[in-house]
Design brief:
Radius of gyration: 21 Å
Shape: extended
Structural class: alpha+beta
Strand content: 25-35%
Order of helices and strands: HEEEEHEEH
Strand order of the largest sheet: 1-2-3-6
Number of helices: 3
Length: 147
Amino acid sequence: MASSKVWELLKKPEEISPAPQPKLTTFSFEVVTVDARGNKVDPQTHEAEQFKEMIDDNIALEMVSIPGGTFLMGTEEEEIERLVKKFNREWFRKEKSQHQVTVKPFFIGKYQVTQAQWKAIMGNNPSDFKADIQQVYVEKNNFKTPG
């Protein structure tokens, strides 16, 4: 069954007991911009920190550290007005104006969750297509889509 560290990630923040920081390792990755023809433009190499959590003897979950920070979210008032005029759509006014957002540091999965990982943590497999291989991703979720 799932390790205690993974179960800690599923709890509400107020229920989480302080746990030792995982041992982080550094990895490199390439960020690529492409032009209209799909050609690489200005590839850049960056680094990030990660850790690997063994869920059971054969199943691992790789987590990447996302640093906290502050950024502007939303649309400038002038841009909202420009869009209302250009498309004659008042619903652009529902867009929230620019505001500062601060996010605390967190970890996120490096890859999509596989069926094997999901089953090891949650105890079931909600997918229509089931396979006992680790590379098959979970295709069902609880999100509701419009329509």
